[in-house]
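#struct-pred

JT: dropping the chains for the assembly here, can someone run the whole complex?
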Amino acid sequence: MTRVLVIDDDDDVRMLVRLSLERAGGKIVLEAANGPEGVERAAADAPDAILLDVMMPGMDGRATLEQLRARPETAAIPVVLLTAKVHPSDHGRFSELPVQGTIAKPFDPLELPRRLDDLIGRGG
Amino acid sequence: MAALYELAILDTPPEERFDRVTRLATRMLGVASACITFVDAEREWHKSRVGVGAAERPRSDGMCQYVIGSRSALVVPDLRADPRFASCVADENARFFAAEVLHARGGEVVGALCVLDPQPRDLGLDERADLRALAGIVETELRAVELARALTAKRDSEQIVQTILEASVTEVVGFDAEGRITFANPAATHTLGWSLEEMVGQIGHDLFHHSHPDGSHYPRDECPMSRVLRGGEVVHLDDVFWRRDGSSFPVESLTAPLERDGEIFGAVTTFHDIRDRREIDKLKDEFASVMGHELRTPLTSIRASLGLLAGTDGLPPEAARLVSTGLANSDRLERILNDILDLERLESGVAPLHVRAHEVSALVAEAAALAEASAVAAGVELRTTVRPATVAADTERIVQALTNLLVNAIEHSPRGEAVTVFVVPDGERVLFSVADRGPGIPHKLHTSIFERFTQADPSDSREHGGTGLGLAIVRRIAEDHGGRVWVDSSPGEGATFAFALPRARENR
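RK: done, full complex below.
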């Protein structure tokens, strides 16, 4: 089983990501509703991958990512950004960040499990 | 005749400056009548006349036609004895006629100074010289009339320029060859805070352009506006100017040289405060970013919920149809949102073009791959004919433009038809075209189709799922690359959309 931590301030999005990933099978979804909670959860539970929302109040996705990369116990966990991009030609805006890839919102829940596997290198 | 009309003297009232000459002519030459006559295609018209009845008569009745025709002085001692002038009937009393030609400024013969008398006679050499001298006075007076008219016109145009400067909401400042201020209009003195008296004579750069936006010193010889005075170039700037109170404001300015006989003797700068525009741009950007996030967040939940529902087995057929409708519309909403943000971004200019040389086949392949899913869903075949060429372009934008044209063509194609992409080098340009076999576009819409939210058939958008923004985005991208987009189509004959990009240098 792949354990995926979803860090997103939107309850609906977390619920829908959970449904999407768990229904496809092979994944267990952990949740965090903000950046600090996400960092703690990642350090405590050592998930196999993190789906991280970029725009969150308080500590946003970038800051959360910095903390994740700074702590030895979370530094190596693959991170995929969930971006409500301001603009579709923003390709590359996140390319300099140390992440495995990005998935744009709105996402197709039937595609999400496969996209995530592809990005974190667990695809069949 | 053009020289005569340029004088604009026909049908003007009598003037003493000319009447004086005709009076003098009668006295000096001892004749009964004299006139200053101008001749157009139909008539001879007297600007001044002494002892001559009518102010004008048909050209064919008078003597002046001969004078104008021969372009030289004419003396006829006795009209009745001279068979050449038998047809000249107007002056029954006149037996003697003499005339000297009148020249316009450019040397053209436009009229004559004529003298007449009831007694046959001749003119001696001195008298002929006097007549020539009198004609010279008339010519001098004609020049004076023209000069007075030109002065009035100049005063009028100075008045117009003055009024434009005073009424203008745009700031205007004039400089001499050294960059010293020679004038400033009220908008400029108001915006900058100095009075006209305080400004005139100051070096403009030192007065209101002395520092960079960060406050650091801006040396005079580094000022791009100095290139106007040195090299005569027109300089367009986005910069800051400084007021009398020490505050600064963002400006857009245009400086152009003043030239006389190839010498630059000064310059004129027009400028305006663009703070409002900057603020509007900032607001638009913020709005776009908020809309991007705030609309996308609920859309994400709607899209994901419907997506999960659609993937659920055993839904009743009616529910499945409703879910599928909801799904298609949330996808459409996302496309509209993306297109609005795209267009806003392109128009605001915040994302500059990254122009590099690209092989066209790679661009077409990428766009075709992006449009493939739409083509499969619509049962439309994609064909490409690409001749090798390299273009100077921003790949991402061009792929976006091509994809928009492809998706547009696919959406309007009947199932089973093909959409064809042609790319061919054409001189200094590379021509991209996308042809479909759809219903075509009426000629009157060939321009407006590129406006936002315009469809060839307004009932179309729902049926085809277009956003009404795709072609506006294509136009913007083509124009940003220094090109344009156009359509060739007639109803019932399909449509071909095309744009041209500059060829990359190394390939020429």
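JT: nice. The domain at 2-115 of chain A is CATH 3.40.50.2300 (Rossmann fold). The longest strand of chain A covers residues 2-7.
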